[in-house]
UniProtKB/TrEMBL annotation:
UniProt cross-references to PANTHER family, sorted A to Z: SET DOMAIN-CONTAINING PROTEIN 5, SET-6
Domain SET: 52-234
Taxonomic source organism: Cryoendolithus antarcticus
Gene3D superfamilies for this protein: SET domain
A Pfam cross-reference name: SET
Annotated protein name in UniProt: SET domain-containing protein
Disordered: annotated span: 1-20
Top-level division of the source organism's lineage: Eukaryota
């Protein structure tokens, strides 16, 4: 599919093509992730889409699924798509719980109309395709050729509600809450596996008066030709019990190879996930400590206070590294625990710390370097900037040449 999208991150961050071109060759594209909380992750810039690398066909997991038509190397960009239909939370709240006698059905139809169907005419192939794609999704209107023509308004709303319930993707956007859900043409066909092979990343941007949603799907590991490409709908490190509870809420009994592969395997994987979760939690606390120290420098700028702060940051950095190493050492292929975006994000942040484990001054120097790029940690988190990536590359080279 040709890339239909504008690269919003560049607009937001002010980075120009040539800035990015300059920074890009020196960096692993994965390092171009912003240093942000997951909800604020913007698209990874300048990573080419692997064209025609998948097909949709019947899946042993459920209904249709996405399958690799070639060997796909880890981290490849598999899909890059604009949502066919985005429903903001305030609309969702009006629509659900679905009450056939209430206003919900009318509102679902109205929202669908205003977002997609009304904009469709014979000259607007993209939107026509979007309408057809939404109607074709799992659980909606199987066997019905033209739902708008053939169905009553209530049945139309019922079908659309089923489609939203089964196929919508969302991001925990603000304060851990889902602020919208979005339906995609191909990414909504990705089945779940507790041993995911890909990760989905969603973000929103303004397109004139409309708020649009985009997604990128990336290979979380090398995927072999013919293999099904799967996401993990649950959170990273969730054990079987938690995954089952979450999935059953969505009426899913998982048929993935881990869940059907024998009890012992599941138990071993759960144990590893528990340990990794503990390390992850510890890391979050240290990450917060480090952020706080960076954001709130000591009021007294005495040498002693500055040294104490540096020491504190270095200790938090080392603790983060320890937890990361703990997770790294436990992670097995059958624990494709998901959210590798978040993972790499954190790794990006810790990269400078990684270099410095044996040298606290370097840790501090690298933090200072990071700081020089933004006035506060939050600001630093705000977006992918070419300046940031170029600086990070410089930092890497400097530290490498100093033999850290
Ligand atoms: C977003 S759809 C995935 C695509 C869907 N298979 C199709 O035919 O379009 C999500 C639905 O697929 C099914 N599904 C996905 N992963 C599954 C799995 N591992 N085991 C069983 N059912 C699964 C569930 O019914 C779920 O509600």
């Amino acid at each position: 599919m040709a890339d239909p999208l504008t690269n919003d991150s560049r607009d937001k961050t002010g980075a120009t093509d040539s800035d990015i071109a300059k920074a890009y060759p020196t960096m692993d594209p994965y390092r171009l992730l912003t240093l942000s909380r997951p909800a604020q992750i913007l698209p990874i810039v300048e990573m080419p889409l692997l064209e025609d690398c998948y097909e949709i066909r019947d899946s042993p997991l459920h209904g249709k699924g996405i399958f690799a038509t070639m060997d796909i190397p880890a981290k490849s960009l598999i899909m890059y798509e604009r949502a066919a239909w985005t429903i903001p939370k305030k609309w969702l709240l009006k629509m659900y719980p679905f009450d056939p006698d209430g206003k919900g059905p009318h509102l679902i139809n109205q929202h669908f109309d205003s977002c997609v169907a009304n904009m469709t005419d014979d000259n607007d192939e993209v939107n026509k395709a979007a309408v057809e794609a939404v109607f074709a999704l799992d659980g909606g209107f199987e066997g019905i050729e033209d739902p708008i023509d053939e169905l009553s308004k209530l049945d139309l709303a019922r079908g659309l509600a089923r489609i939203v319930a089964k196929n919508a993707k969302s991001h925990y956007f603000k304060n851990g809450e889902r602020n919208w859900v979005a339906i995609f043409q191909d990414p909504s066909r990705l089945n779940h596996s507790c041993m995911l092979s890909a990760e989905m990343h969603l973000w929103q941007f303004k397109d004139g008066p409309r708020t649009d949603t985009c997604t990128q799907v990336r290979a979380a590991r090398d995927i072999k030709k013919g293999e099904e490409i799967t996401l993990q709908y649950t959170r990273p490190f969730d054990t079987t019990e938690i995954r089952e509870a979450y999935l059953s809420f969505h009426d899913i009994v998982c048929a993935c190879t881990l869940c059907t592969g024998g009890k012992n395997r599941v138990i071993r994987s759960d144990k590893r996930r528990e340990k990794m979760q503990q390390a992850w939690d510890a890391m979050q606390i240290d990450f917060t400590r480090l952020s706080a120290a960076i954001e709130r420098p000591p009021l007294l700028k005495t040498q002693k206070a500055m040294l104490e702060r540096e020491q504190y940051m270095a200790e938090a950095g080392e603790a983060i590294m320890k937890s990361m190493n703990e997770i790294d050492s436990r992670l097995k292929p059958e624990d494709q625990v998901g959210n590798f975006m978040m993972w790499h994000l954190l790794q990006t942040f810790c990269e400078a710390l990684r270099f410095g484990t044996r040298d606290k001054q370097l840790i501090v120097a690298s933090i200072e370097r990071f700081l020089a790029l933004g006035e506060s940690f939050k600001e630093l988190h705000a977006g992918v900037t070419a300046a940031y990536t170029a600086q990070l590359a410089l930092l890497q080279r400097k530290i490498a040449s100093e033999g850290a």
